[in-house]
Amino acid sequence: MHTTPLDDLVACPQCDTLHVASMLPEQTSAHCQQCGIVLMTSQPAAMARILSLALTAFIMMIAAVSFPFLTLDAGGLHNATSVIDAVLAFNDGYAFPLAVAVAFFIVVIPLMRLVALIYALGPLVREKKPRQGARKAFALAERLRPWSMAEIFIVGVTVALIKVAGLAAVTIGPAFWAFAGVVVITVLKDQLICRYSIWEALDKATA
Amino acid sequence: MITARDAGLVACQQCGQVHPLGTQVCKRCEGRLQSRDVDSLQKVWAWLIAGMIAYIPANIYPMLLTSTLVERSESTIIGGVFDLVEHGSWGIAIIVFVASVMIPVGKFVAIIYLAISVQRRSRANQHERHKAYEVVEFIGRWSMIDVFVVAILSALVQLDTIATVNPGIAAVSFALSVIFTMLSAQAFDSRLIWDVARTKE
Which residues cross the membrane (chain A) (predicted)? Predict the structure, then answer.
């Protein structure tokens, strides 16, 4: 009944319409015929770029949690805040679960995604066999995507800065710029990720 | 156009790999396979109702507890927006209002509409409904802005007697409301939007 082998078929994840996969010319993308979502994109050397961006973001994230984030001065008093302090702001009594959630949204999940991607794609870029569990790692990185909220946090920080600006002098620390860098690089990296191509690459590298 | 299900196949939503119908686990990414999530709408309604319930205390109770030398004050979500307007920060007031009021409420309405239209087997506006689903999935997380604002303010403004800011209970309920509605949107199986029309054709 099927004239095409199963591996050459692609079903749209959002509306289940079947398509036959074909080689895409570079710098183009294929859309679902029924609902219009992007099914796959073709970008030359995307894998190496994703990996290098993920490594950069990882290093910047380490800087963002270690250095001072914001400093507040008013009436002779001084208070320096790191990203960790922002997480611990909810650390009293009833709000404790929220502290854990915020820690996950802005630091732990973004870091987990980066580590998983580096782990899964590292060997592929060097044209070696994928590591054990590479598939699980890549699937995890993609599943965590909506829960990684670093970019939302940076907008929240901007709003908070404007709220305090009238009351006290706020100094922006190096961690702020590192964190902003993580956000920009993560967006660039996620735009390069084409799930279909990466799964194909994982398949090819295993075979 | 033919669907994977009509062709006797089941597709992996995680990696796109196609398998014969009845396969349970994807051979490529080891994800669980379901041709249609039959419990989708039940989960959508359950998470949505939880999210709407959590949104009530989020609006009644204070988000921020501020104490300065001269006064102690509490501000709710809407109160915070009005404060910003009084200070003349219109742009920020609009951002907070959109993130904390318009997006959550818009999301409730959009999810209710999507769920009911699927239950009624509606065949109208499929493209618009699919767009609505994509927008809801994409934009829902941005409501978290206000929770992060509270986190930063309470970490930053800790100047002993001069001024301190602490999080209120509404911050917790608001965060829960956002998380529940995100789960509700994720539980929605968008393939259901398209199924009705295709089976009638």
Answer: 50-70, 98-124, 144-162, 168-188
